[in-house]
Amino acid sequence: MSAASTRFRVNGYPRKRTPVASKNALAKAAAANLSAQVLANLGVSLSVQALDAVKLSSRLQHGDFQIAGPLGWTADYPDPQDWLDLFADD
Per-residue pLDDT tens for 39-66? Predict the structure, then answer.
């Protein structure tokens, strides 16, 4: 059992979560991959709820979710270069 999984168990974190994601194919595939990794490494089961754009947006605006994502491109790592490269010319 991993150290992270042990911490989850010892601290009483829930073993099941329901993240929300977009219904598009990329989001579904990413959510399935993430679910498999979280289960394998933390022992936490994710039951992804795929929503259409209107329902997803509403749930996100009202904070009606446990976990959300993927929601698009974000920084790969916390460094200004990750953002500044967007403006670089080749």
Answer: 888 888 888 888 998 998 899 899 998 8
